[in-house]
């Protein structure tokens, strides 16, 4: 498969901060790749290097067979950075037309707005939109120029469930037609809904590059919380915290843990099992790995 974007041994420093550390990555045509990792992992830096907003300190970045610094090359991509500023006084339809005018074969306005559930907002000024609506518009605009490759940095942060699903549908439709997508997310759920390939980034390095399933097993840590006194030794516990009589256990196998807890006859109440944040999962896994060194 052809690589549409590639980094080779890319390092990026900001002063003393090593944001990316010799990252080599190929984004192949037709892929939907999720970049997953905790805050400060280097995801945005990687996207910014791919789209030419930053240059590497060392190593090379290729985009669509050329340099990301070349504006002609960049015309073939769509980008929604983590933060965007759209002019408040323009209407949704006007902004869409403005962006469309930059591309020779732009997507029709109605089609674009329909795809991203924005049709009813076409006459609204951007300043009057909710945060979530603005974000959806910003993401939609990445698709205006019929790009071959789209980079979305945390496309759905701050969106409610329904808005998130509408965006996912728009992104998925583009991908189903053969489009290539790279998106960053903190949400494993989002990556699972969209991507086949997950690249886990941590401390500037690629920690894993695999299928969603394989990575889920790696970071699929759950938090089991309960009100209880002393607990017996339970299987598969990665860490234990206790606060005000409430115990929180992190585990990759909550079912087994709860079965063993019940079997032990230990009195407890208020049992709750919920996903951990990715950050918690990473901290746990890293702490465990370090403990074994
Ligand atoms: N312009 C900058 N100047 C100095 N340090 C920076 C700059 N941009 C990023 N960094 C640092 O580089 C590291 C990687 O940041 P980056 O924004 O790429 O991470 P991220 O994975 O996108 O994080 P988040 O999920 O919080 O957006 C962090 O330590 C960050 O503080």
From TrEMBL:
Compartments, record wording: Cell membrane
Assigned keywords, A-Z: Antibiotic resistance, ATP-binding, Nucleotide-binding, Transport
SMART domains according to UniProt: AAA (SM00382)
Main subcellular localisation: membrane
Taxonomy, superkingdom: Bacteria
InterPro entries hit by this protein: AAA+_ATPase, ABC_transporter-like_ATP-bd, ABC_transporter-like_CS, ABC_transporter_ATP-binding, P-loop_NTPase
Membrane topology: Peripheral membrane protein
Gene Ontology MF term list: ATP binding
Ranges of residues in domain ABC transporter: 5-228
Key word Nucleotide-binding present: yes
A Pfam family this chain is assigned to: ABC_tran
The keyword Nucleotide-binding is assigned to this record: yes
PANTHER family associated with the record: ABC TRANSPORTER ATP-BINDING PROTEIN
Protein name: ABC transporter ATP-binding protein
UniProt organism field: Nonomuraea spiralis
């Amino acid at each position: 498969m052809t690589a549409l974007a590639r980094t080779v041994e890319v390092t990026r420093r900001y002063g003393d901060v090593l944001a990316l550390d010799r990252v080599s990555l190929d984004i192949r045509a037709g892929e939907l790749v999720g970049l997953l990792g905790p805050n400060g992992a280097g995801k945005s830096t990687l996207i910014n290097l791919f789209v030419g907003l930053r240059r590497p300190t060392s190593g090379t970045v290729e985009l669509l067979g050329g340099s990301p610094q070349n504006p002609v090359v960049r015309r073939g991509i769509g980008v929604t950075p983590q933060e965007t500023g759209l002019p408040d006084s323009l209407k949704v339809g006007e902004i869409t037309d403005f962006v469309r005018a930059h591309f020779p074969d732009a997507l029709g306005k109605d089609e674009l707005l329909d795809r991203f559930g924005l049709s009813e907002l076409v006459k609204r000024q951007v300043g009057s939109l909710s945060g979530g609506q603005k974000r959806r518009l910003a993401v939609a605009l990445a698709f205006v120029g019929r790009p071959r490759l789209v980079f979305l940095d945390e496309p759905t942060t701050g969106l409610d469930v329904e808005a998130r699903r509408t965006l996912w549908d728009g992104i998925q439709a583009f991908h189903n037609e053969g489009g290539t997508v790279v998106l960053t997310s903190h949400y494993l759920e989002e990556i699972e809904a969209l991507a086949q390939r997950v690249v886990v980034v941590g401390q500037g390095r690629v920690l894993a590059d695999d299928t969603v399933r394989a990575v889920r097993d790696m970071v699929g840590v759950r938090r089991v919380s309960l009100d209880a006194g002393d607990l017996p030794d339970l299987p598969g516990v990665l860490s234990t915290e206790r606060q005000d009589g409430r115990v929180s256990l992190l585990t990759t196998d909550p079912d087994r843990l709860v079965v063993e807890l019940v079997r032990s006859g230990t009195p407890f109440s208020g049992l709750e099992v919920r996903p951990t944040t990715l950050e918690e999962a990473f901290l746990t896994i890293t702490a465990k790995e370090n403990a074994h060194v």
